[in-house]
Amino acid sequence: MSEITLTPELRPLGKSGVQVSPIAWGMWRFATATVAEARTRIEAAFAAGVTLFDTADIYGFDGVGGFGDAETLLGKVFAEAPGLAAQMVLATKGGIRPPVPYDQSAAYLGQALDASLARLGVDQVDLYQIHRPDILAHPQEVARTLEDMVRVGKVRAVGVSNFTLAQTRALESFLTIPLASLQPELSPLELGPIETGLLDLAMERDIAVLAWSPLGGGRIGAPEDDRSKAVAVALDVVAQAAGVSRAAAAYAWIMAHPTRPIPIVGTQNLDRIAEIGEVYKVRFTRQSWYDVLVASRGERLP
């Protein structure tokens, strides 16, 4: 039976012209590190083959304070080691505005981007994504705002995170530049993007998919319910055959989809960051890939 082979070569970020690694490293839990620790983690991710680094202005916020802390810490790393910024494809997100849930008005998004650039200490980010959809923002206004960010050179490419299929289509209909990326939650335990047609849209439009929480919020590593345990068993069959961790098998399962989703690895553990490159040892067959899908669904396919 033929196997699905994964390779570490860089690939296009949609139609943006930006080239990125097949796996990204995320900074959701990055904000509390020291500058030295932060730099060590970033260098470990580079050593594991990562070039795409994902952060957001909300990362570090604990419900009371900390807004912007992850970006600020990354900015301090750049100030200490300016060459690191030039080596990475830097992605950040905005549009969440505590205590208001979401704000994608043109005025606020412009301020949010400028604040992110200031915290990071850079003039441009490679990818700027709307973090969560603002129901009160017309997609035409959002589209014009994103286009302006690119036009003035503050952003190379734009994308969206946590948008539904309909919300993505609506925004895209008003854009005159490519929508480079979608960032949904996607894992062997979160099949929404597969089942709602979001990944089909990504293939149709040549949009990159960045998968957040690829380990199901930790449930794949430490399964507690029957469904998670069944998925873990199916992943372990493949992981053991390749001599890798279950996490690597989970990343590979995501990456095997024809949209070639890019898992955003969130671990801050240096040993686990070093294991990122092991994903390329994993070989799924159609049978073993569908075994994981069936375990997640809890029922046979029709």
Name a few traits of the molecule.
302 residues, alpha/beta, eight-stranded parallel barrel, two-stranded antiparallel sheet, 12 helices, 14 strands, 41% helix, 17% strand, NAD(P)_OxRdtase_dom_sf, NADP_OxRdtase_dom
Q: Could you please describe the fold and organization of this structure?
A:
This protein is α/β, with parallel strands linked by helices. It has a domain at 7-183: TIM Barrel, CATH 3.20.20. 41% of the residues lie in helices and 17% in strands. The strands form 4 sheets. Strands 4-5-6-9-10-11-12-13 form an 8-stranded parallel beta barrel, surrounded by 4 helices. It has a two-stranded antiparallel ribbon with strand order 1-14. A two-stranded antiparallel ribbon has the order 2-3. Helix 9 crosses helix 10 (246-255) and helix 9 (226-242) runs antiparallel to helix 12. 49% of the residues are buried.
Poorly predicted spans: none
Can you give the mean pLDDT?
97
Give the class-level CATH name of the domain at 7-183: Alpha Beta
Instruction: Summarize the helix and strand pattern as letters.
Output: EEEEHEHHEEEHEHEHEHHEHHEHEH
Largest sheet: 8 strands, parallel, barrel
Number of helices: 12
Beta-strand residue percentage: 15-25%
How would you name the CATH homologous superfamily of the domain at 7-183?
NADP-dependent oxidoreductase domain
Helix content: 40-55%
Instruction: Report, as a whole number of angstroms, the end-to-end distance.
Output: 22 Å
Instruction: Specify the CATH architecture of the domain at 7-183.
Output: Alpha-Beta Barrel
Protein name: Aldo/keto reductase
Domain NADP-dependent oxidoreductase: 23-289
InterPro entries: AKR, AKR_Detox_Biosynth, Aldo/ket_reductase_CS, NAD(P)_OxRdtase_dom_sf, NADP_OxRdtase_dom
Pfam family, one: Aldo_ket_red
